[in-house]
Design brief:
The protein has 420 residues and is α/β, with parallel strands linked by helices. The longest helix is centred in the last third of the chain and has 28 residues.
Length: 420
């Protein structure tokens, strides 16, 4: 029981918070569950426990070290002092902006029936933030699939935005209904679609599913010409997918591009170039009218200047060097890392099947997902066996990117015990 002095102190403390924090800030709380469970894994290791790390979204080699693309790391080390320490242009280095468009569109770039532009951002998160800040009104709902990366909610809440979700397994009826509903209540519709190699499930849409999804957006834009439509493809993991430029192929087949439809790509170099902490990415934007691009550049430049100022220069210079002079070497090493993921996914699915555990279909990238109603309890049980995973709404994310193939039977055994 609290003493009178303790109660008085807590009351004063609340008053201080009320005077210092605005109403939106006072609602913020909590730690990111991914980093929280990663911290628990690190603590277990410090305590001498033989622990398995399936928490963070980083590709870890079998010895427990961060897997790096040596071509990229060597290029970073070889840059001169000015490029290490100097500012980048606020829009990003022109050659990097062109590279970002190539990373988004690949071989389909010449066939896109729209103008393509980009602006450098601090990682994919910067691209997501810039879209949330500019393509939705405060109080709006942003369209997401019901299973999505947790920090989406954080980025949206920072921009006073909410979530309208539709099922991950969608016949497109739900997506069409959601678009129709938002068109009745909002002046703008923004949607984020993480594909391919979806986080947290590892699912990738097929060519037919991409076509049907895009048709929903095209039809809604054409049916509601006064409503702005912005579809952002979160391509964080796309270069580790079987069809890395599948969305570019689908977009290249648009025949009548509505003027009220903008398509964006959030490009992240964290995974594809193994420079996670260097916060390097871009927002690529596609629209048929050049005048739209001129205005968007002004808007996005303003957002960048008012938040992160400019994206880091060194990784931009290094990646330009890699793609202009060492493309084959980078690609070879990337494919080796991709093969590690493929082997681990196969080992995981085999181990899961041998333990009679149902897992969501997973195709590409860093993760797999197991649906359950009590994810916290399951992860706590797994932690008792030295296996650390991430509990999310509706299930458990397994970071196969960080787990050696040889450890997959142990992971499956811990999950089987916990789920029982």
């Amino acid at each position: 029981m609290q003493s009178a002095s303790e109660e008085e102190f807590n009351l004063r403390e609340k008053e201080y918070f009320s005077s210092m924090l605005n109403p939106l800030a006072r609602k913020k709380s909590g730690d990111d569950p991914i980093f929280r469970w990663f911290s628990r894994y690190l603590q277990a290791k410090e305590n001498g426990i033989d622990a398995v790390n399936g928490t963070l979204g980083s590709l870890i080699d079998d010895s427990g070290e961060l897997a790096l693309n040596a071509t990229v790391i060597d290029s970073l080390r070889n840059q001169v002092g000015h490029d290490m320490a100097g500012y980048s242009p606020l829009r990003g280095i022109p050659a990097f902006r062109e590279l970002a468009i190539d990373l988004a569109l690949g071989q389909y770039r010449p066939h896109i029936p729209a103008v393509a532009s980009s602006i450098a951002t601090p990682g994919g998160c910067g691209a997501l933030y810039a879209s949330a800040c500019n393509f939705a009104d405060p109080g709006d709902k942003v369209l997401l699939r019901d299973k999505h990366w947790g920090p989406y909610k954080t980025i949206l809440s920072e921009n006073s935005l909410n979530i309208h979700s539709y099922p991950l397994w969608d016949s497109n009826l739900e997506l069409r209904a959601s678009l129709s509903e938002l068109a009745l209540t909002q002046n703008r519709i923004l949607g984020w679609l993480n594909d391919p190699a979806h986080n947290p499930t590892g699912l990738s849409l097929s060519a037919e599913e991409r076509k049907n999804t895009l048709s929903c957006w095209l039809d809604s834009a054409q049916d509601n010409p006064e409503i702005g439509h912005t579809l952002l493809i979160d391509a964080a993991y796309h270069l580790y997918a079987k069809e890395p430029h599948g969305w570019a192929e689908t977009i290249s087949k648009i025949e009548n591009w509505p003027n009220n439809l903008l398509i964006l790509f959030a490009i992240s170099c964290s995974k594809s170039h193994t420079i996670y902490g260097m916060r390097t990415g871009a927002l690529v934007y596609l629209h048929p009218e050049p005048e739209v691009h001129s205005k968007l550049e002004e808007v996005l430049l303003h957002t960048g200047r008012g938040t992160w100022s400019g994206a880091p220069r060194l990784p931009q210079v290094a990646l330009i060097d890699v793609h202009q002079n060492q493309l084959n070497e980078w690609d070879d090493e990337k494919n080796q890392l991709k093969a590690i993921l493929t082997n681990r996914r196969r080992a995981f699915n085999e181990a899961i099947a041998s333990n009679s555990i149902e897992v969501m279909p997973n195709d590409d990238g860093y993760f797999a997902f197991i649906e359950c109603n009590n994810p916290e309890e399951v992860c706590e049980s797994c932690a008792e066996d030295g296996v650390f995973l991430v509990p999310l709404t509706g299930g458990i994310r397994v970071g196969i990117c960080a787990i050696p193939a040889s450890e997959m039977p142990r992971v499956a055994s811990a999950l089987a015990k916990a789920l029982r």
